[in-house]
Amino acid sequence: MVSNSAQAIAQLAQLRDPSKRGQLAMGVTEMCLAQQLSPTAEPVAGELLITLSSAIDAPTKLAMVEKLASSEWAPHSAIRHFAFDEIDVACIVIRKSPRLTQHDMISLAETGSVDHRRHLASRPNLGPAITDVLAKPGEAIILRALANNCTAQISDSALDICLSVAKEHMKLREALARRHDLSAEYATQLCIMLPENWREDLYRRFGLDKNYVEGLAVKAALSATPAGADSEAALAVDAAEKSGALSGNYALTALRAGKAAVFDHAVARLCGLTPAQWRVALAMGGVRAAAMACQACGLERTDYPTIHRALQRGGRMHQQLEGDAMNAAANVFRMYGSDKAANVLRQLGSRS
Hints:
The protein is mainly α. It contains 23 helices and no strands.
């Protein structure tokens, strides 16, 4: 193999035609894959493949790496080199090469780019030693790839990171909810952050107690706002009501300004609820409750997306404004007047 390597490098130095270089590279690749190399020949072959790969065009390099990645005895040094290469090359190796070692993958998880780590997170049959390293930085895009990888073994500590980050990322919550290896306790905590249709699925799959989960959701909704913020919000809404400024637009302006407690108190006052009832109604009803509030407060249908997204940013709305959520909001505006919408909110908030 040593003499063949020297010959190939000498031949490469003499070749000027890109197609001839490509033919040489593919010929050496086939030679390396024809049979398992000896311990002394393998590192030499790996070095040769790396040298050849730098002298050929991109399509040939991709074809070369595709062959190497499919082999159970491709030279390890070449496989490791390509795993850290540009992402269009690296992803081929990361996804499927059996020659990548756990040490290689941990190095990738620690030092690779986001794209390298995202592809690694999607690789089949990852163990906890790798998934723990991938999860540690708490990057939503990586955690989502891990959660979607049903063959990945994810430790309790990594799942805790996922749950923490999922509070701000709906797609991650959904990916976690599709997994079948969650504990009942974990599924319960996840349920609290999911809309009703997803909750029902988790109740069924994990045998969860619906009343218990909803009780936790109510408790979370009622404990989210500090008492001081509530007192200040109540005073602000009292003043607005006395001056005649209290309206749906007043509530909307407060929400846009990030004053969630003022928004809650304004909506509650306008709808004839207590702030606690409104918060429970939102926790229980999600999109439907938010749209009911919009209607009951005399806001325009076009104001709803602003309310929805602001509640999402605050972690209080767990559905994207698309598909079923859009339809649910549209149905509220079509079917409910302000008084009827306020009555529904009172019913939704009755658990407070």
